[in-house]
Amino acid sequence: MDLVNLQVGHAARIALLGYGVVFLGLLMLMIVIMILGKVMIASRKKAETAAAVEVPVKEVPAEAPKAYAEGSAGEIKLYDTDPKDAAMIMAIVANKLGKPINELRFKSIKEIKK
Amino acid sequence: MDILGTLQNLWLESGFSAFFMAGGWKNLVMILIAFVLLYLGIVKKFEPLLLCGIAFGCLLSNLSYFVSLGDTNALYHPELWAEFLDSTSPYYHSYGHIMAHCGLLDFLYIGVKAGIYPSLIFMGVGAMTDFGPLLSNPKSLILGAAAQLGVFVAFFGAILLGFTGPQAASIGIIGGADGPTAIYLTTKLAPELLGPIAIAAYSYMALIPLIQPPLMKLFTTEEMRKVRMEQTREVSKTEKILFPIVVSTFVILLLPSTAPLVGCLMLGNLFRETGVTDRLSDTAQNALMNIVTIFLATSVGATMTAESFLNIKTIYIIVLGLIAFSISTIGGLTGGVIMYYASGKKINPLIGSAGVSAVPMAARVSQDVGRRYNKTNFLLMHAMGPNVAGVIGSAIAAGFLLSIFG
Known about the structure:
Chain A is 54% helix and 5% strand. With 114 residues, chain A is mostly helical. Chain B folds into 2 domains: 3-75, no CATH class; 116-405, no CATH class.
């Protein structure tokens, strides 16, 4: 096959093969990452179970629930701020800084009243 | 002393007189193009970090090299590189010959020609990229693959327009929306097209907020655009550390020609995630990245000589580049629509368009368009998955084309 002066039919075959290779490569990578994720989750659960068995559970008086934002994975404290407003503020800050939101740590948001 | 004779010599040796000699007008046109690119970079903020350097490299090259004056003061010598690429020349692939006769920009261009700068840029990109969203939702990789459609459609289109196989492959990779990958592949396969391809790639990346939204509206329904996606699982530190090692091993074994790009991308990411190489990560994503960007942009701009840029092929490349970007976006959106149905309407197909790479611009566009239809929608982190998958996808596409035409 003359790869410099490529015929249309050959070009079409290379294009299809190329797209297929990209798909196959990333599909296989997806499977590898999924397996890796499952192994990690399983090992984490195993470690947690082992820790729970080793450490005797003490009766601890229940703490009062903290005022975290709903659906938050962090520990942000909101003072006189609606969770929806807080989410919007955090998204705007992340957008302005050009950083993914999970790389930023917000400690608290407080409304300043005049 | 012949004052008039001296003044006449000064005039004849000046670039001003060269404008009136054979081919001088072409330099003038290229200088005007450099001014337009500088305007776009500085005023319109189109990828300014790269476009300013590219434009200034183009300016310097066309101010210092005139066909009628010879190459005495030239910063970049196209004829040296023509000999370098000519297999019948005694100086074929001779960096020694280049270094013995080079100007400043020829010297810097060696780093592009050897594939060093794009790989180092990839190291910086790896150090700046959080692959967490991809790890928490590995299905994003499908969208990254789907969004490489434009690469192969543009490749086919370029063949129809009469480009050679290696040239068509270099044009097609514009659809990967990844500047360093486009530069890397073009330098290897079709260095004579480097200037227009680099300009097309970076200009369209800057225009993503204009190119993608109409296509997103066209290929998705309002109901699809309103889908609110669930929060993805938390990814452990160990997974993040293992990821670059696993990806390097797997992808390089699969396609060895991807080794420079994927290897450097993942090395940078490993520096970021280990927690014990913070200094290296900082250098890779700041100092090294900035230095290499200066060298890369200026020397790529220098290749935009009048002879190589002012021809019909440049217009074809600009048009094919736009087609490649658009088709890649459509490919990603189509993948998103398929996943929307396959997931029981839980995936917002707007994140598919982010699969074109162009990190993080394309993910931000998905976020902005999603928010326009559902104020409570936060697609940014979900779109980052396909977005970084697109980087790996375009590197695989480049590796495939390199293995065929390299």
